[in-house]
Backbone:
């Protein structure tokens, strides 16, 4: 007998989002391409919202995970010692941390990016004895209550259902279009005993704001922020959840600025294969947790450790991927600038670093229409920004030049179709 057809859409909560813009039922994926159940291919410039920097089902990483399951190694291990955990820690230390002069300790806070942020905020408050956190306009740090309190988007904040407190937003780089000197307001508030600003435990920042609209902070702005934190005894938390693991070129998005954050949050592409994994990296002197003081049942997903270690060995033994990402990013920037020049009346703005790129439109409607037109032509990309006014691309870093150019042609065609010029 044929099983009755179930309306699975009706079974799901209305909170789902991506499937509303991309109603296809996807069934398989390889590299930079996903196919729906009818065999229709789509070029993926979304890459799991940045969780698939090395593409879908990379053959070497797939081999590792299949071997891992086939050999009956531990899948669930909490924070017990396992061979996979040890291999990851050693590989991460030797190939990522030490070459960059970082001596941070690694905490596994849970399966997702919000877990990494919550652990960072909690530890900063424990270390300093202070409650207040400074965040930045248009920031996004996650959907749990602590992470939401340092997130800027009003729609996401509104879903909390309670007041979000103990956080103070400050202007991100170029928030005032260059009209106000960097940190003039923030530093004046810190130094004025009458300002009412509680001395912050930490500042949390993204070197490139992804969900906030692909806003890239200048290296000198990040350096000035790090210096300000040091002078006022404030911990610096760098959220590298979406922009880490090579998205902007270097493994960490802050490398270009030459700063050393006190705490670093990683997730998304750290497992290398799209499996849940998150890290909170802390300077040794800040590692004052009591045993079990911060924990979680799924903080040790061992298959993710295995693919994460292999991804580092495969892609970070030299600077090949970094140079490729920077070159491809420069190519995207050039193509986006051509669109800006083609439609001066729409005042488009090209944004981003590396292969985190955006094209800002005057309205969310236009950006959404361009993404919809691209979907019709077989390209997946999303919008971001406070009003969803930015067309955002996060393609796999491993995509070929042909795939990149094919996607950019689709974007050109989609922009032309929406803005009315062929």
Residues:
């Amino acid at each position: 007998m044929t099983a009755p057809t179930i309306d699975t859409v009706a079974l799901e909560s209305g909170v789902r989002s991506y499937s509303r813009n991309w109603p296809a039922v996807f069934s398989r994926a390889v590299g930079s391409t996903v196919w729906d159940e009818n065999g229709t291919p789509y070029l993926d410039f979304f890459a799991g919202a940045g969780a698939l920097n090395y593409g879908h089902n990379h053959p070497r990483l797939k081999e590792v995970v299949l071997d891992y399951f086939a050999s009956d190694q531990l899948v669930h291990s909490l924070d017990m010692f396992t061979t996979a955990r040890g291999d990851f820690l050693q590989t991460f230390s030797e190939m990522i941390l030490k070459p960059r002069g970082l001596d941070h300790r690694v905490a596994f806070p849970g399966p997702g990016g919000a877990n990494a942020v919550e652990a960072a905020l909690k530890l900063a408050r424990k270390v300093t004895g202070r409650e207040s956190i400074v965040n930045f306009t248009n920031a996004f740090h996650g959907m749990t209550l602590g992470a939401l309190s340092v997130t800027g988007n009003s729609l996401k904040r509104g879903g909390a259902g309670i007041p979000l407190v103990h956080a103070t937003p400050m202007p991100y780089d170029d928030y005032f279009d260059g009209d106000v000197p960097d940190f003039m307001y923030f530093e004046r508030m810190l130094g004025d005993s009458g300002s009412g600003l509680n001395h912050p435990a930490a500042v949390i920042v993204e070197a490139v704001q992804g969900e906030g609209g692909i806003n890239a902070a200048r290296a000198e702005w990040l350096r000035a922020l790090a210096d300000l934190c040091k002078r006022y005894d404030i911990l610096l938390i760098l959220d590298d959840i979406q922009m880490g693991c090579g998205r902007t070129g270097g493994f960490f998005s802050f490398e270009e600025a030459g700063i050393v954050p006190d705490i670093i949050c990683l997730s998304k592409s750290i497992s290398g294969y799209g499996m849940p994994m998150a890290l909170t990296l802390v300077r040794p002197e800040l590692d004052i947790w009591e045993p079990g003081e911060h924990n979680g049942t799924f903080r040790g997903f061992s298959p993710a450790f295995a693919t994460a270690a292999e991804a580092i060995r495969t892609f970070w033994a030299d600077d090949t991927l970094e140079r490729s990402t920077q070159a491809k990013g420069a190519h995207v920037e050039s193509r986006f600038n051509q669109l800006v020049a083609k439609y001066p009346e729409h005042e488009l703005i090209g944004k981003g670093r590396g292969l985190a790129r955006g094209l800002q439109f005057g309205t969310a409607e236009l950006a959404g229409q361009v993404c919809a037109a691209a979907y019709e032509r077989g390209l997946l990309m999303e919008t971001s920004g406070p009003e969803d006014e930015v067309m955002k691309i996060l393609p796999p870093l491993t995509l070929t030049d042909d795939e990149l150019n094919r996607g950019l042609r689709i974007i050109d065609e989609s922009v032309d179709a929406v803005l009315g010029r062929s």
Observations:
- The longest strand covers residues 26-30.
